[in-house]
Amino acid sequence: MIKDKILVIGASGQIGVELTLALRKVYGNANVVASDLREENDLLKGTGPYVSLDVMNKEMLHVQVIRQNITQIYLLAAILSATGEKNPNLAWNLNMQGLLNVLDIAREEQIHKVYWPSSIAVFGPTSPKINCPQQTIIEPITVYGISKYAGEFWCNYYYQRYGVDVRSLRYPGLISYKSAPGGGTTDYAIEIFHAALEEKIYTCFLKEDTYLPMMYMPDAIKATLSLMEAPKEQITVRTSYNVAAMSFSPKEIAAAIQQHIPEFTIQYAPDYRQAIANSWPQSIDDTAARRDWNWKPDFNLELMTAEMITNLQH
Ligand code: NAD
Ligand code: AKB
Known about the structure:
This protein is α/β, with parallel strands linked by helices. It folds into 2 domains: 6-173 and 224-242, Rossmann fold; 174-214 and 245-313, Alpha-Beta Complex (UDP-galactose 4-epimerase, domain 1), CATH 3.90.25. Helices cover 42% and strands 15% of the residues. It has helices at residues 14-27, 58-67, 81-86, 88-108, 143-162, 188-198, 217-229, 250-258, 273-279, 287-293, 301-313; strands spanning 6-9, 32-36, 50-52, 72-75, 113-115, 118-119, 166-167, 169-171, 173-175, 201-204, 212-216, 241-242, 246-248, 265-268. 2-amino-3-ketobutyric acid binds at residues 80-81, 119-121, 144, 173, 184-186. Residues 9-10, 12-16, 36-38, 53-56, 76-78, 80, 94, 117, 119, 171, 173-174, 181-182, 184, 186 line the site of nicotinamide-adenine-dinucleotide.
């Protein structure tokens, strides 16, 4: 049996840190190589190999894949929705070229599996708002959403044409306490916890009734590992799977936090991110993920809030 050797690209980011640690538990520390453009995250230090790597430099990436005998690649390097609107060209270039570099190398080196996350940002104002289906009208209005939707079809293309086993999830907004978020519209749902514990007041950049699909990081890691471990014949979606856990508004998460910190207050000053949030669905239908690889989340708003507060207090 060939032992898997994994390369995580973008390992110092919000998902990368936790996914790298989770993969190291499953595959062994030495078999998961973390890489990023920026320096190694403190939580990764001493837990396994780290290389400095720019996914835009295809030659350097190729050398690392060969040198390290890589058999699986997890590509997490991207520019998210809010930062993307400030620099659309940069977002398009990184999000597209980074993916194409990885897919090409995966094809040439016969990499066993590739993981690449998409997002609920693929959906646009014409998509259904409630329980947005897997397949529906998809007309994104952000450069991030456009790049994710195009990326989904590149994944499907490399699978259909070259047999590259690339798998993908449309993550909702991810909430976590270990590493900071990287410039998304859903980042408010993390900032609010830090503000509640430190200043006891939070000024939210979205309106109080803005519902968005969200997920606690342990569920996102569970979904990712389940998808990647599922037998190939069970994967029926080769663009990207909808995955859902919870949906709430700023007003509702503030109320959940007040259950633990009664003196906490929230005020609202919507900015350019409101238009991005308005274009996304409020909730997502993830029937295909539940059917194909038994997806089921563990955390709702109350459980996630209790865990976030406990963990941030320590
Ligand atoms: P992040 O911004 O926290 O992390 C991305 C990492 O990629 C950073 O550490 C950054 O230094 C690195 N990076 C940037 N350019 C690079 C380059 N040229 N070469 C190598 N590394 C580079 O992002 P994240 O939140 O961890 O997101 C990871 C992936 O998941 C992205 O594709 C994102 O679109 C997707 N996603 C995230 C969320 C979320 O809520 N966090 C939701 C949906 C989808
Ligand atoms: C963002 O807000 O850009 C991300 C996402 C939902 O893709 N968190």
